[in-house]
Amino acid sequence: MPPNQDTAPSPIDSPFASPSELLWQELGWTPSAGQLAQFLTLQEQLRLWNGRLNLTRLVEDEDFWISQLYDSLWPLVARLNGPPGPLRCVDVGTGGGFPGLAVAIALPQARLTLIDSVGRKVEAVQAMAQALGLAERLTLRCERVERSGRERSCRGQFDLALARAVAAAPVVAEYLVPLLAQGGEALLYRGHWSDQDGKDLERALVPLQAGLERQERRNLPAERGVRHALVLKLLAPCPAAYPRGVGVPAKTPLGSP
């Protein structure tokens, strides 16, 4: 017999409302004591800055540990459990610092560039990175990613390019693919994903000289929804025409009729 409303556990009573052993078992990776301390500090910093700037509603309990942290890390579990090595990573549209700050903590060998066009968010993330002891490994860029993709310091420079909750997949592909070094991967975090979404993305990848290497699906714990991770790779050097000018990828996505 299902529990009635009065006895059903509240989110704060959930085993995922804090960094429990069950959370890490579900993820498939366990942080060190130092990394766990940094994750807790990250939550504190997010509370602090969210009170000033309203960065995100996902700050407490399951909202933070599942919908922010777990959701940032699950597509990277193979890397988290793999041998350490240098990694050049870029987070496009980092917003309140996710997935970039979570990835920086989880992959201590990585150097990250975090890009966002909103100055106040960039300032907040920079301050959080400083408080977390990550400032030496992080570079913050306040600009539109279409400009980043044409800058010599960014174009073709990254082993891993990430974008979470930024735009439609064909638009994100045009943002990320020009940033990839040879052999690099672009990771698109998606929620709902349909066959039509896949066809739209495949058409967009043709002019970018890229392809879909793999696709993963996962149910988040505590019935927090279904997530998809799409990994793109270069098939040949990205043509110099991409990314197009500021605003053009979103207005006229590649592969659209």
How is this structure best summarized?
With 257 residues, this protein is an alpha/beta fold. It is 37% helix and 21% strand.
Structural topology:
Layout (H helix, E strand, L loop, with lengths): L20 H7 L5 H21 L7 H13 L3 H4 L6 E6 L7 H7 L3 E7 L2 H13 L6 E5 L2 H4 L9 E7 L4 H8 L3 E11 L4 H14 L1 E10 L6 E9 L13 H4 L6
Parallel strand pairs: 1-2, 1-4, 2-3, 4-5
Antiparallel strand pairs: 5-7, 6-7
Your description of this structure?
- With 257 residues, the chain is α/β, with parallel strands linked by helices.
- It has a domain at 73-251: Rossmann fold, CATH 3.40.50.150.
- Helix content is 37%, strand content 21%.
- It is built from ten helices and seven strands.
- It has helices at residues 21-27, 33-53, 61-73, 77-80, 100-106, 119-131, 145-148, 169-176, 195-208, 248-251, and strands spanning 87-92, 110-116, 138-142, 158-164, 180-190, 210-219, 226-234.
- A seven-stranded mixed β-sheet has the order 3-2-1-4-5-7-6, sandwiched between helices.
- Helix 2 (33-53) runs antiparallel to helix 5 (100-106) and helix 2 packs antiparallel against helix 6.
- The termini are far apart.
